[in-house]
Amino acid sequence: MMAKGDSEFVKARGLFVTGTDTEVGKTVIAGGIARVLKDKGQEVGVFKPVASGCRSDRGGLVSPDAEFLAHCADSAETLDQICPVRFREPLAPEVAVQRGAEPIELEVIRTYYNRLAAGKEVMIVEGIGGLLVPLSQELLVADLAGQMDLPLLIVAKPALGTINHTLLTIEAARARGLRVAGIVINSYVADTASVAEETNPAAIERASGVKVLAIVPRDLQTNVAQGSIGPGVLFALEQIDYEAIL
After folding, report:
1. Is 4 a catalytic residue?
2. Is 1 within a domain?
3. In this structure, what CATH number is given to the domain that contains residue 62?
4. In angstroms, rounded to a whole number, what is the distance separating the alpha carbons of residues 194 and 192?
């Protein structure tokens, strides 16, 4: 079983991408950032420490999110190296373990991460779900992010309700001593945006003091399952000042 403090992660330059909820597009944003940084000439490592909802492939479990990250970064690492812990059912890891899956060993995550980070200039890590998703009875995603000691990039949806969800995520991060590098609003549709969607980013900045780094449009050329990322996503993410947040 995992316990806090059992493992030490190497200090790396990078970002830990988390979300205000599931299905807000963490994978798209993490992959897009990896692609942007790679195109800028950086040696980028991508890492998805834990994934659920994986498919069976020739007797093993494969994370589509990890496949997408690997594609975006043009990674030479195997999917086992990029995503060392995988669960079949689309559940919080602690729940999957309660239903019979093998418990997570933090040392396994640490070993794969450290090996990968040792050869990269930047690490882009995608969490599972939000910060308070339990990995075990003793450890949350936020605890893992804290041990990796990477600044958080919070991915949020544009719709009504996102102010509350985003501020709660920021509050949870700060309560645990985590540094929030910024927020990305994902899947924004300018032509049909409501008043709430138009005003949410500024309201979040005023209430939290955290900058909205990018508003990423819904891009129909982006498809995680097909490994494609569209120009709209990339253009929005190219506008971020990465030197200021990494």
Report:
1. no
2. no
3. 3.40.50.300
4. 6
Catalytic residue among 48, 120, 157, 211: 48
What residue type is assigned to position 18 of the chain?
A: T
**Domain span including residue 103:** 14-240
The count of structural domains within the chain is 1
User: Does pLDDT of 5 surpass 50?
Assistant: no
In sequence order, the 6+-apart residues with CB closer than 8 A to the CB of 235 are none
Buried b / exposed e over 145-166, threshold 16 CB at 10 Å, is bbbbbbbbbbbbbbbeebbebb
User: How do 55-57 and 212-217 pair as beta strands?
Assistant: unpaired
**6 inside domain:** no
- pLDDT exceeds 90 at position 207: yes
pLDDT of 105 higher than 50:
yes
The residue with tokens 């999110």 is 65
CA distance 158 to 188: 6
Asked if residue 3 belongs to a domain, the reply is no
Would you state the pLDDT for residue 7? 60
Beta strands at 85-86 and 44-47: parallel, antiparallel or unpaired: unpaired
Angle formed by the axes of helices 231-238 and 26-39, nearest 10°: 70
**196 within some domain:** yes
pTM for the predicted model, two decimal places: 0.95
Position 191 scores a pLDDT of 96
